[in-house]
Amino acid sequence: MTDKPIADYAVIGDTCTTALIARDGSLDWLCWPRHDGPAVFLALLDRERGGTCRLALDGLTEVTRRYLPGTNILETTFVTATGRAVLTDFMPLHPHEAVPEEGPDGHAQGRVVRRLACIAGRVSGHWFLRPTFDYARAPTEAVVASETQIRFHGGGDAIRAACAVPLTLREGAAEGGFALTSGARADLVIAHGAKHHGAESEDDAAGEGLTAEVDASLAATRAYWEAWSDRCTYEGPYRESVLRSALTLKLLTHGPSGGIVAAATAGLPEAVPGNRNYDYRYVWMRDASFTVTAFVNLGYDREAAEFLRFLREADTSRGRDLHLMYALKGPVPQEETLDHLRGWRGVAPVRIGNAAADQDQYDIYGEFLVALHGYLEAVEYDPPVKVNDHLPEALGHLTGHILRARHAPDHGLWEMRTEKRQSLHTKAMLWVGLDRAVQIARADPKHRLADAATIATWERAAAEIRAEYHARGWNPSRGAYTMAYGSDDLDAAVLRAALFDAFDPHDPRVAATLERVAAELGAGDLVYRYRIEDGLEGDEATFTACAFWRVGCLALAGRNAEAAALFERLLARGNDLGLFAEEIDARTGEQRGNLPQGFTHMAVINHAVRLAAARDGQTRTDEPDCRADAQTVPA
């Protein structure tokens, strides 16, 4: 069977984990109970060995789909030769009566609900359900609990299936046939764990009880998402795309911890053929700056605070022992390959865990300070006591790291598994970090966060770092700022550095660099990260976020019409639901890499906001704040 295009997939979730569902209704990816937990459905990476939950309809002729407005509830309409049916997929997330100051803002139910209703004529077909536990490494046992319920166990885990039509068990898979007339339903509920903790008994609802439970849960989940979307303060021309990106970032959050994973999946390839297949279901410090600014720019201050809560609890040293990345719970697993899986379209190896966790990437100190600065400005420097009490210590640790690392080589933004270098992007982010530390400290007139002498030390070091990377990062023979000191290699990361004011977009050298990046790393509207040997196999696709960074640089240079036109063309590169993976193949236009990719959706949000600011005559270089109640745009 030919694997589906990555763009065929939609995502649903409950802020604990996510599921990917293809255009044809096949649920092909789900990790339980967390984003980084073992997959129980992974036909996405191996259609023969990986578990799946498929819907097969007789005489299918047409498929359309959408998200219910302002929600992460997926609605797929199927037209057959004899009728029409609507499949509504969601993971129940019910509102709290009162949202706590910290922690999940909704109650996840640990279920996937698939509400199938015939709305015209008659439709027939069947459900097919076959989970595989621990990435299909553990044997699966199935037990019939009743005519409409089957339980599956394996690898110390369990799931339950309850259906509105009878289920039969055959070779470890459940099947449920149906023939529906208009108004009839064949709902299917898949739940995690051995028991239904919300019920009085161990058994799940069945028959009419299941239908009523599904309807109530759908109403509650829709109410949660609509209320969340109503808090979005962006009202610009790209609201639909911005809100979809915000909803996607919310799906990538982990409510219990406050963490936000980089992507929902593992092992989807960045190059076909190649071996660039990584696990992105972890929390990257680098994402902190754009994550917080993306949420703050839309009025979601609580989400920004929750991400900082995660960092506060994951790093109890308050910045002294800050790591490049974190798992949602415990250490990042060692990288391993799942050799029994063939990979998407046969592109192996499938990797879980991530060896980049052991790399030295010193830009993370600047990333953290950008995030902290953006959040503090959003709350007008009046954060909760848990944040406020530790600010002096955190500032001291983070700036101390910068001062010690300013002359050290590192692995750089792109995590290449080669020797360390004096990375230009890293040096620029070290300057950014000190700049934001100074702004944070100067916002406190009582000098509680840092005394005047300390602030002056940071300012002197920042000036020295900036002067150094401007001098040593410029390559006269290339006519551009390059990837590392003494390097001839171009690097699209310079676009990102310019967005943080590390480079003046009106500087002729910066303008020349942007032209060189467009000429040598560009592929039409798309942009490659770099074009050098990096020790990996295959030619990776273009990096989608880089193309959006170019939008920002054009806007900063005053080329607003050009920036807006490019932004709109890039938005059209998403799938039919507005979702983006990590990369786009320049030749075919196909999505590549893990899906959905948070970094890309952060870029969509921040550059829609940036274009709105530019349209209103504001020219800022940091991510602007266009919340409805904002009187000024923060630096």
TrEMBL record:
Region ranges (Disordered): 616-635
Domain GH15-like: 236-607
Annotated protein name in UniProt: GH15 family glucan-1,4-alpha-glucosidase
GO-annotated molecular function: hydrolase activity, hydrolyzing O-glycosyl compounds
Gene3D superfamilies: 1.50.10.10
Signal sequence coordinates: none
Family matches, as InterPro entries: 6-hairpin_glycosidase_sf (IPR008928), 6hp_glycosidase-like_sf (IPR012341), GH15-like (IPR011613), Trehalase-like_N (IPR045582)
Gene source species: Methylorubrum thiocyanatum
Gene Ontology process terms (BP): carbohydrate metabolic process
Basic and acidic residues bias locations: 617-628
Coiled-coil annotated residue ranges, if any: none
Name of one Pfam family that matches: TREH_N
Residues spanning the membrane: none
Domain Trehalase-like N-terminal: 4-157
